[in-house]
Specification:
Blueprint lengths: L1 H28 L5 H7 L1 H8 L7 E2 L9 H10 L33 H35 L4 E4 L2 E4 L6 E3 L5 E5 L7 H13 L2 H14 L4 H22 L5 H13 L19 H9 L6 H18 L2 E2 L9 H6 L8 H10 L12 E8 L6 E8 L8 H17 L5 E8 L16 E4 L11 H17 L5 E3 L11 H6 L8 H10 L2 H7 L2 E10 L2 E10 L11 H17 L5 E7 L4 E9 L7 H6 L1 H17 L9 E2 L2 E2 L19 E4 L3 E9 L4 E9 L1 H9 L13 E5 L2 E6 L9 H9 L15 E8 L4 E3 L5 H9 L2 E2 L10 E7 L4 E6 L6 E4 L3 E4 L2 H11 L6
Parallel strand pairs: 1-6, 3-5, 8-9, 13-14
Antiparallel strand pairs: 2-3, 4-5, 7-8, 9-10, 10-11, 12-13, 14-15, 15-18, 16-17, 19-20, 19-21, 21-22, 23-24, 23-26, 25-29, 26-27, 27-28, 28-29
Helix pairs in contact: 1-3, 1-4, 1-8, 1-11, 2-8, 4-5, 5-7, 6-8, 7-8, 9-10, 14-15, 19-21
């Protein structure tokens, strides 16, 4: 709900700016331009309200803020502190010639009522929206009921006695209602006007505009826009009805307008009435009508384009800074402590302008030259809160950071920090004791420093990365030389104990620095869960991204480091039995460069999984071996199902080196992606099972089974990059027997039904994956049993977080476990995929049984 309300706030603010721009154009051109053309300008406002943020086009001349002021205020209210926080960490120590910036301290405590009010705002918005929608519906129903006995005159024209002004009502089959007071002399003018409304589809546009207003009822600018839209509709219909009228006809039309004026108003949702809106202005327009000027139409069209380009788009950072290779190459310097040279490079790269769009900010540069590794920190300070992170902007900063490092010879890292006056920052974790800010490290080829052409090629490569959204950066400490320096305290917190998870693997690839190290060598790094025979492990694939990175050859230093990272991956994922890294060629062939086994490693993987101290010992051992250029491991590699002799290479693998341990294997032509709800992830996790050719043939030839109600599954057959089939066990997506066998025998798929909870229940335990445990009283067991046996099937996985596990025990020794949706989510996961629903009252009762505080 918060996210939806946040999006509505953002769109409403932007639409309000567009509406103000339309009002300004309307004010200037309303006497010269076509009324119908003016009316069409309001479509820009509707387009902004309807177009999702994700589909909004970027523009270097966009005038919209990266974060709307109202959204910034809302976020500040959400983050209002309820207690006095500790002081913020100090800014980096000042060094010789450094332009230091003072990091603001945390503000005083704010009242809890501010945050509470922010929590209620989305619900206030929903209530207001519901009231508006109810008003619209009731108004329409009331008018329909009132007009049931209206006298039919001709076609879709009716005469009524309840109102004194003509109007149009209806959407699919619009009807014109004329009051008894309209004379036969005025009737032709009235019908001409109302028929113009119908021809222009105003009877559809006006209720639709009211619906948009109902969603944005809190925006006064949009209320004004709605009123002006109604006036422009009436003026456009007047213009259309009198397009070829002579003076006498215009006079008769004006008399009809006056005679229908000052009558009781229609319901606001249906105001397509002849004489209701701005009658005095309309009479003047009718009597003084002049043909629209061509120059006014040209200006109007130009204004629409300008509004669209500047206000219907979002900010782009692609043109900040010139990125002129020749100019930048001429600015290069060998020393990071050369203040003027470094400042000129950063200004030429546009860092001064890269502060968050739409927010007042300060800009400073800190040069860390008092000790190695030396580097650069760009600091942005804001008067209020730090704006929300924009991935587009962060990638732009990271891309320019890489270029800066290529131009400053002895700079070994580049970081950027953002600090708000309220104490917010862009730290990875605002509660962490150490300061982890986004940072990049050198990743340029030697040719960059040889010529402007080499620098231009590097810039072109980075810009291609930008298009693909793969410019890497990590969160690290500037004191560390390596962005992939492993910290036992932090990594131990992220150890994944509950089963392999795609989301956890993605985090590990970033957290361990595998993506950063790979990208510096020209590769993109991806990880996936793979099941082979009776074991499950992690495959790390490196995809070449630039010309000097190939699948057939790999730098020896990178290969050694990646083997060390495989052991760290095993230490972080308790359920991984092995880890392997390979490069992938254009034919989808994988070249394996190392595979480590948790149970047969030369390192103490089990100790690292048990304690922080064990993790620290593993890191120390790996770092020492990486430094000497050889990771001691016993890794086995497979080719056509045959296991190679276990050994460690005598020297690091490299472009010229030992090929005996480089085994090329073929990635499977087909894979089965298996989805399960797991306790550790609290959500669905994906497991990839490689399939043999005979398995694929069997699956495609078998007739799918329709599973019973509580036995649904979720799996997908993929060949290459294409989705071949989707299996659920339903009548429209049946599951082949071979797939079902793989799910149950290889992937541990389980099924639970309400019938499994029948019997003499003796105990019930509720566990949260953070370690909290609750036990139900024996007196509450019958109520719990009724709840579980009466649960209703709801198909596949539900959109809830399943962070709690319920385990019940019976007197016959049986135990049954299911997952419970947290807080207000009134659902369970029975088995691996099936959702069971209970009522809201039963959900509250469930938490009461275990004495867990209920929120929602």
């Amino acid at each position: 709900m918060d996210k939806l309300f946040d999006t509505v706030l953002e769109l409403s603010w932007q639409a309000g700016l567009i509406a103000l721009a339309v009002m300004a154009v309307r004010l200037v051109l309303r006497k010269k331009a076509s009324r119908r053309a003016l009316c069409m300008l309001w479509a820009l406002v509707a387009l902004r309200l309807l177009l999702p943020v994700s589909l909004t086009v970027e523009s270097p001349v966009s005038l919209q803020a990266e974060e709307a002021p109202v959204s910034r205020v809302y976020h500040a209210m959400q983050e209002a502190r309820t207690s006095v926080p500790e002081e913020a960490a100090p800014a980096p120590a000042e060094s010789s010639g450094a332009a230091a910036a003072v990091v603001p301290t945390e503000p005083a405590a704010e009242p809890v009522t501010l945050r509470t009010f922010a929590r209620w705002l989305p619900w206030i918005w929903v209530i207001g929206m519901g009231c508006m929608a109810a008003y619209m519906l009731l108004s329409f129903i009331w008018m329909r009921l009132t007009l049931r006995r209206a006298e039919h005159i001709q076609d879709n024209v009716y005469r009524c006695t309840q109102w004194s002004t003509p109007f149009v009502l209806g959407i699919i089959a619009p009807c014109i209602y004329v009051p008894e007071s309209v004379s036969e002399e005025d009737l032709p003018q009235v019908l001409a006007h109302e028929r113009c409304h119908i021809r222009r589809w105003d009877h559809v546009v006006k209720p639709f505009a009211f619906l948009l207003l109902a969603v944005n009822w809190f925006n006064p600018v949009l209320w004004a826009a709605y009123v002006l839209l109604g006036r422009d509709m009436e003026n456009a219909c007047d213009e259309m009805a009198l397009k070829n009228a002579d003076t006498a006809q215009r006079a008769a039309y004006s008399r009809a307008l006056v005679s229908c004026a000052a009558q009781p108003k229609m319901a606001a949702v249906c105001p397509l009435a002849f004489g209701e809106v701005a009658v005095k202005e309309r009479v003047k327009n009718v009597l003084g009508y002049k043909k629209p000027a061509i120059w006014a139409a040209v200006i109007l069209a130009a204004a629409a384009v300008v509004i669209g380009v500047c206000l219907l788009t979002k900010p782009s950072y692609k043109n900040v800074g010139t990125l002129d290779a020749e100019k930048l190459f001429a600015l290069r310097t060998p020393y990071v402590d050369n203040n003027s040279a470094v400042g000129a490079i950063l200004d030429a790269l546009g860092f001064r302008e890269l502060g968050s769009s739409g927010a007042d900010y300060g800009y400073a540069v800190h040069l860390s030259t008092d000790r190695e590794p030396m580097g650069i920190t760009v600091l942005y300070t804001y008067e209020g809160a730090v704006p929300r992170k924009s991935e587009e902007r962060y990638r732009q900063i990271a891309m320019r950071g890489y270029i800066a490092l290529a131009l400053i010879d002895n700079a070994e890292w580049f970081s950027w920090q953002e600090h708000g006056a309220d104490g917010t920052s862009n730290k990875a974790d605002s509660t962490a004791s150490d300061s982890l800010y986004p940072i990049v490290y050198p990743g340029y080829p030697d040719t960059v420093r040889e010529s402007a052409e080499g620098l231009q090629a590097y810039i072109n490569m980075l810009q291609e990365w930008m298009k693909d959204g793969v410019v890497p950066y990590v969160y690290g400490e500037s004191e560390q030389r390596d962005g992939w320096a492993w910290n036992a305290d932090r990594l131990d917190e992220y150890r994944w104990k509950w089963g392999l998870s795609e989301a956890a693997l993605y985090d590990d690839v970033m957290r361990l620095g595998m993506q950063t190290r790979a990208s510096m060598a020209g590769y993109d790094c991806r990880a996936q869960i793979t099941t082979e025979e009776d074991s499950t492990g992690v495959d790390v694939f490196l995809y070449p991204m630039r010309g000097d990175a190939t699948a057939e050859e790999i730098d020896g230093e990178l290969a050694t480091w990646m083997r060390g990272a495989l052991h760290m991956m095993l230490a972080l994922n308790d359920k991984a039995q092995w880890a392997r890294f390979s490069t992938v060629d254009a034919d989808n062939g994988a070249h394996c460069w190392g595979r480590a086994f948790a149970d047969a490693s030369a390192y103490d993987i089990a100790g690292a999984r048990e304690s922080r101290e064990g993790m620290e010992k593993l890191i120390k051992a790996l770092q020492d071996d990486i430094e000497r250029g050889q990771v001691d491991e016993s890794f086995a590699m497979m080719e056509d199902g045959a296991e190679m002799p276990s050994a460690a290479p005598a020297s690091p693998l490299g472009t010229s080196g030992e090929s005996a341990y480089i085994v090329k294997f073929r990635r499977p032509a087909a894979e089965l992606e298996v989805y399960q709800i797991t306790w550790g992830a609290g959500d669905s996790t994906k497991q990839v099972v490689p399939l043999r050719e005979e398995q694929v043939q069997a699956i495609q030839s078998e007739k799918g089974l329709v599973q019973p109600e509580w036995y649904q599954v979720c799996a997908e057959l993929r060949q290459g990059d294409e989705d071949v089939a989707y299996y659920m066990g339903t009548d429209y997506k049946p599951v082949p027997p071979t797939v079902l066998k793989i799910l149950t025998e290889q992937c541990g798929y389980t099924f639970v039904t309400p019938e499994d909870f029948r019997g003499n229940m003796t105990s019930a335990k509720l566990e949260f994956y953070d370690g909290e445990t609750y036990t139900a009283d024996k007196a509450d067991l019958p109520a719990l049993q009724r709840m579980l046996t009466n649960a209703r099937a709801y198909g596949g996985g539900a959109a809830c977080g399943f962070g709690a596990k319920l385990t019940v025990t019976f007197d016959d020794g049986r135990t049954v476990s299911v997952l419970k949706g947290t807080d207000s989510c009134a659902s369970f996961t029975f088995g691996s995929w099936n959702t069971a629903m209970v009522s809201d009252s039963e959900n509250r009762q469930f938490w009461q049984i275990f004495g867990v505080p209920f929120e929602g």
